[in-house]
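---------- Forwarded message ----------

FYI, see the Calcineurin-like phosphoesterase domain-containing protein record below. Original note from H. follows.
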Amino acid sequence: MRRSAGRPFSPLFMSSIWPRRPAGRLVHHLDVPLLMRQWTWAWRGVWRALGWTPLALALSLGERAAVPPWSAPAPGVSASPITRVPAAARVIAVGDVHGDLTALRRCLRLAGVIDDEDRWSGGDAVVVQVGDVLDRGDQERAALHYLDDLHGSAQQAGGAVYRLLGNHEVMNVDGDFRYVTAGGFAEFQRRDRELAGTAMRQAYRAVLSPQEREHIRRMPRPMRDRAIALAPGAPTACKLADRGVLVLVVGDTLFVHGGLRPEHIAYGLERLNAETAAWMRRVRIDEPSKEAPSVQATDAAGESGNSPAMPPPATDDPVGTSPIKRGRARRRTDALEKPWFLRGSGSPIWMRHYSTPYLPPDSEACQLLNDTLRQAGLQRMVVGHTPQRGINSACGGRVWRVDTGMSAAYGGVSEALELYPDGRVYVWSDTGRRLEADERSVK
């Protein structure tokens, strides 16, 4: 993305982009080490659910608990979600992945944090992926596991890899599968049956209420394995919560999928993360609040997943045309209620206030952003969610928009944002050039 001499950088807004690749094309990716790690993780959940205590003890998994054991954080994961980490020598931010592992790796390679064999080479750098690993692509689970495995490698070198929770992660845990490809449904069927077969399905069902089991039984067959795995409290939903957070602060920079408002800061960043994780794990925490303070928390658009600025659902539907077959599988059961702040177009996962084109510093959105950052005591915000034609900043550099529509579904570019604790900011373009912040500032 080249800048013409003497001309300011355009906002590169892509709100009208339509997924270019038709749903339904199934891509097979054979990664034996990854498959073995998934097999171990899958059977670990089976052993715990079925109460095979000799095996569980041998693997230090503990006795069968009153609640599904996998709803507790995985080994090595703190019971309280990570919300704040110290400033790092170098921070790399990458945008929405949408099931495209190849594009994700291309971004990380541009920033120099993985080598040609996709292994960690970033030293003590910190990587933040801003959410929406799921939907629109066929490599969702592979991308999810890759990020989590890369985090382990990064930690050994003094670095870290964090991923945020986006609206598509929340939609899937909420049973909304409108943006899942046929390959995305098949990935759950194929991998679960290969890894653990019927026992895995029985273990997944152990967490579901009778109403939920009946609801899933009525779904089209391609949807069932995904619905079981991603129900609140089921293993894949808990895996999302293990290393995924709603909001993350690294040094003086706030990372969130869509955006935050002053009301969210007042509610508490740690509280936002804790209540989101509790909902995904189907566990209760002390005095969770389902009521919003005075904030526009719910509306029909946000609850349905179609905020006014969001592209409409794809028309090529792999599982049918009725509401249930279109993926509107949202559960109305006795499961713990989704927190209020995950609903509505003003929520952290749905906001687009800071991602619209041409935001002058005196605009209402920039004033809202400044109020939010001032209340949080932070310098800048990094968001995804709304595709741009390239990473760019607005509001005088106070917000960086990093969703470039990199996935094959959108056909955008692969880019990465680079931040330093002294305030320097760079963009790694898809051509391999390292651009100064001013070259990507919306004027």
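H. also flagged this: The domain at 78-178+231-305+332-440 is CATH 3.60.21.10 (Purple Acid Phosphatase; chain A, domain 2).
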